[in-house]
Write a structure and sequence with these properties.
Elements: H1 3-18, H2 29-32, E1 44-46, H3 48-61, H4 64-67, E2 71-73, E3 90-96, E4 101-107, E5 111-117, E6 122-125, E7 128-131, E8 137-140, E9 146-149, E10 156-162, H5 164-170, E11 175-177, H6 191-196, E12 216-217, H7 219-229, E13 241-244, E14 259-265, E15 274-276, E16 280-286, E17 289-293, E18 296-300, E19 305-308, E20 314-318, E21 322-328, H8 330-335, E22 341-343
Antiparallel strand pairs: 1-19, 2-3, 3-10, 4-9, 4-11, 5-8, 5-10, 6-7, 6-9, 8-12, 13-14, 14-21, 15-22, 16-19, 16-21, 17-18, 17-20
The structure holds 2,5-dihydroxybenzoic acid (GTQ).
């Protein structure tokens, strides 16, 4: 048989087995088992100044109550239509205007909030309210009731990070609405942080879930920790001083599906190249600088957002002292034994 004839015979064979819902592995094996991650996720950046006018415009088009969550989804250009910023994670910017309430619901997807703009709106989680301030890291564990409200005089904006694409892939999503807009509060504000986030734990405490019992990690404390550490800590050549938000009861990540990090990059420091298999979303809190992600260069300042795909080389430079928040699916990859990282030379 000639090569052309063989190719034709094969194609006819593929058509015949397609009738039985089968396909030949050998045509796609190299794609199915790539030598290194071949993600459709691409490096991308959202400048806050570009996005903010649209966010405020959305506030004139729909109320938080009608929208349930008034969010502009940040869609990775390589994943349009999938509500995904990386292959496994969702991100969006949520706006809540003075006097509004985003009604209470719960879902199996875990969520994090990283506060970008405004001061004094609240989120209520599992019977307790917490006031939100810029830079605060707040979590909404899987299947906990949560509603958001704004009693302040200013619009409030935060970055939402959820494991929506991951849970969708696992077909493990459930959701329900609370019978009223606001859930019943059973504990005073600050209770969880005092009880679990002060280097103390209640006597005989045993974790009842895989998520941290602390649900607001206030920026004031985080920033102070970074500032104190810089006096003694050696800078990591790739990350500066980078810390993980942890569950104080286990020392592990604050949530089982999303890892969150905060890092301080010193002024004038060029980080060494780094890559890891967890596609990572970055939010700039303070300072100015630039990151090279694969072949893209992003100049960033406060409130800008960018994403580094799995296994893409990343290098950060800070022109002034800079603080970056970031999140990824690292806990999932690590618990499954899949996570890899590589450090390059400066
Ligand atoms: O605040 O509960 O961005 O359920 C997407 C889904 C936010 C939320 C989002 C959600 C929420």
């Amino acid at each position: 048989m000639t090569a052309t004839a063989l190719a034709g015979t094969r194609r006819a064979f593929y058509d015949r087995i397609a009738q039985l819902d089968m396909a030949p592995l050998w045509e796609t094996l190299h794609q199915l088992v790539p030598p290194s991650p071949a993600t459709p996720c691409v490096p991308a950046m959202w400048r806050y100044d570009d996005v903010r006018p649209y966010l405020l415009e959305s506030g004139r088009l729909i109320t938080a109550k009608e929208a349930v969550r008034r969010v502009l989804i940040l869609e990775n250009p390589g994943l349009r239509g999938q509500a995904a910023i990386t292959h496994t994670l969702y991100a969006g910017l949520q706006l809540i205007l003075p006097g509004e309430i985003a009604p209470s619901h719960r879902h199996t997807q875990s969520a994090l909030r990283f506060i970008v703009e405004g001061d004094g709106a609240y989120t209520a989680v599992d019977g307790e309210k917490t006031t939100m301030r810029p830079g605060d890291f707040i979590i909404t564990p899987s299947w906990t009731w949560h509603d958001h409200g704004n009693d302040s005089a200013e619009p409030m904006v935060w970055l939402d990070g959820l494991d929506i694409p991951l849970v969708r892939m696992l077909d493990a999503g459930f959701a329900e609405n609370y019978p009223e807009d606001s859930q019943a509060l059973t504990r005073p504000e600050g209770d969880a942080l005092a009880r679990y986030g002060s280097g103390l734990l209640p006597l005989g405490y045993e974790a009842t879930s895989r998520t941290s019992p602390v649900f607001n990690y206030p920026y004031a404390r985080t920033r102070e920790a970074l500032e104190t550490m810089r006096r003694a800590a050696a800078w990591d050549p790739c990350h500066g001083i980078r810390m993980t938000y942890t569950n104080p009861a286990t020392g592990s990540y604050a949530m089982p599906t999303i890892g969150a990090f905060i890092q301080l990059l010193p002024k004038g420091f060029t980080m060494a190249p780094y890559r890891s298999t967890d596609g990572t979303v970055f939010a700039v809190v303070e300072g100015k600088g630039r990151s090279t992600i694969a072949d893209k260069i992003f100049d960033w300042g406060p409130r800008d957002l960018f994403v580094a795909p799995s296994w893409a080389w990343q290098t950060h430079v800070a022109d002034s002292d800079a603080v970056l928040f970031s999140f990824s699916d690292r806990p999932v990859q690590q618990v499954l034994g899949l996570w890899r990282e590589q450090r390059g030379n400066r």
